[in-house]
Amino acid sequence: MHWLKISCILCLFGCFKEFRPSESFVTDYLTGSWKNFTADEVNQQIYPVSTYSYLATLVLIFLITDFVRYKPIIILCGVSGSITFLMIIFGKTILVFQILEFFYGLFMSTEVAYYTYIYAKVDKKHYQAVTSHTKAATLFGRSLSSIIAQLTASFNLLSYHELTYITLSACIFATGWSLFLPSVNQSMYFHRVSISDEEQGTRALDHQLQYSSSPQNVEKSKAKHCRFAISNASLLRKIKNAYALLWKHFIQAYTNYRVTKWSIWWALATCGYLQISSYIQLLWQTAVKPGDMIYNGAVDFIYAIVGAVTVFCVGKIQLNWTLIGDVILSIFSLLEGAILLGCFYSYNIWFLYFGYIAFGVVHHTMVTVASFEVAKSISEDSYGLVFGVNTFFALLTQSLLTLVVINTLKLNIREQFLIYGSYFMILAIVYIVMGIINVMQHCRSGADFHVWIGGGDRCLSVNNANDVKHVDN
């Protein structure tokens, strides 16, 4: 099947998976007359379960995804989402909602298959195109669901309860549509089409090659042996080879200082973002007066559109991130912390709306930078592993934060945002120190630096402030 057709099938699944209009008003739905939960019950007993579930299932899902070749996990993503929203409609007790939060955590962790499936089905030369397709599809689904949620709520066309039926229908359609995805015959670790001598071992290959003398026969023997070794390998051997390759890629990536530095910020910032996005509606409730119109859907729509534009633009900006990356990270972390502290003090709903949009746009912009900076320093085979590991540590940190702030200290929602704002302030201080040290080291050593000119087509490279040369991009 042509790669573009496969991309379209996958993107339609992603669009309907993200079409969840009820989520813009889910907190008001749970605390309203439909379910009658208190804000404290939602904050301390219901929402935290999905955080722990997401963490608990992510690693297992990541490995199983590769082993079962993606498609079954994509189907599981749709099924778990359908179960979640079906239980939301008919659930009444805290226990039922805690169970559905487990399925919601599973739903989020299975999204890894959606983002990695396409790389196993298309040639590497199409990676950039299909990556933009999958991200655009989820963005379109999220934007469309947000604006529909706002319009139906503003004009009293549908209640929050009826919006949940629309979300469930979209999830069921996405599940059915996923069945049309073509199966995957190979994967990165457990079902490799070809492997290197270093990964498989050379003893058996050397035994085969001793009977071949010409270069043509050598190449044929290599290819034949690799195919035979993979197709006939036992399950135990596949697991051992997969573990060895996983560990090799992990060590190669995280012994690189640049990868580790960007990954730490990525994980810690993502932890804070996930916490904010999970509990922001509870904060909005403290500023909304009885009878006021709620614009949660409009905020989600604006946030998605503005975020998409800034993420697209930052991919076009050419800066020496090696030199100034730490400083930029510290500045934006400081801005995020200031926004959250402002949200702690403010009871103006418009400020809270604007603060959430600005916080989300800043986060996605800098995570995009972190993503391509990490990608520059690792092999293509390591993309999924590194991104999965970073997400795991983000969820681990989020789970610890949830355990301390919500389940142990039992802080109210505004006190929580004071903690989250301070969290980003500390992150900013750490990276401003790292940034200052990095700039000082560059100045002392006279390290290479680049000044980008000519619209990004060529750059002026200055080595030790003495040698000047032009380098094509």
The averaged pLDDT comes out at 83
Helix content range: over 70%
What gross morphology would you assign? globular
Order of helices and strands: HHHHHHHHHHHHHHHHHHEEE
Described by its quaternary structure, the protein is single chain
Beta-strand fraction estimate: under 5%
Strand line-up of the largest beta sheet:
1-2-3
Distance between the termini: 33 Å
* Number of H/I helices: 18
Structural class, please? mainly alpha
Radius of gyration: 25 Å
Major beta sheet summary = 3 strands, antiparallel
Number of strands: 3
Give the low-pLDDT segments. Answer: 195-232, 447-473
Family: Belongs to the reduced folate carrier (RFC) transporter (TC 2.A.48) family.
GO molecular function, one term: vitamin transmembrane transporter activity
Subcellular location: Membrane
Protein name: Thiamine transporter 1-like
List the helices and strands and how they pair.
Elements: H1 3-17, H2 26-31, H3 39-67, H4 71-90, H5 94-109, H6 111-117, H7 127-154, H8 160-178, H9 197-200, H10 203-209, H11 215-231, H12 235-254, H13 257-285, H14 296-314, H15 321-345, H16 349-376, H17 383-408, H18 413-445, E1 449-453, E2 458-463, E3 467-472
Antiparallel strand pairs: 1-2, 2-3
Family: Belongs to the reduced folate carrier (RFC) transporter (TC 2.A.48) family.
Pfam family, one: Folate_carrier
GO cellular component, one term: plasma membrane
Summary, kept brief:
The protein is mainly α and 473 residues long. The chain is 74% helix and 4% strand. Strand 2 (458-463) and strand 3 (467-472) form a beta hairpin.
